[in-house]
Design a protein that fits this description.
This protein is mainly β. It has one domain: Lipocalin (Beta Barrel). It is built from one helix and nine strands; from the N terminus they run H-E-E-E-E-E-E-E-E-E. It has a nine-stranded antiparallel beta sheet with strand order 1-2-3-4-5-6-7-8-9, covered by helices on one side. A hairpin with a 2-residue loop joins strand 7 and strand 8. The chain is globular. This is Glutamine synthetase.
């Protein structure tokens, strides 16, 4: 799985469950306004999160792969669908479903990656 997809899923997971027990990369430096959060991490990767109603727009730059990526997340009650595309042509789709304190996540990528996993506020992913 490409790094951008990992970061976007991790970002989505952190936004959805609010707490993660996984070890995170070095903290990023962020700037925030009412609807926009823009960050750059210690490795030079950059991303932004913009909210408009129940839709989240993520955009980023992956320094290692020197590629840009964008992802859109649309929420419908307890279900969030996401689609993304990268400058190298990779595309991905998936969903996250909240059930109490648990999220059920599934995604697939044109690069051949795909997974289904469950995350909990108590036990993590």
């Amino acid at each position: 799985m490409k790094t951008a997809l990992k970061y976007s899923l991790l970002s989505l997971g952190l936004l959805m469950i609010g707490n993660a027990s996984a070890q995170l990369p070095a903290l990023a430096t962020c700037t925030r306004s009412a609807n926009l959060l823009a960050c750059v991490d210690a490795d030079g990767n950059a991303y932004s999160v913009n909210t408009v109603g129940d839709t989240l727009y993520l955009r980023g730059f992956e320094k290692t792969g020197r590629r840009y990526w964008a992802q859109t997340n649309s929420r419908f009650g307890q279900l969030t669908f996401f689609t993304g595309v990268a400058s190298d042509g990779e595309a991905w789709v998936g969903y996250t479903r909240r059930v109490g304190w648990t999220t059920i996540n599934r995604f697939s990528s044109s690069g051949g990656s795909g997974a289904k996993f469950t995350c909990s506020r108590i036990t993590g992913c």
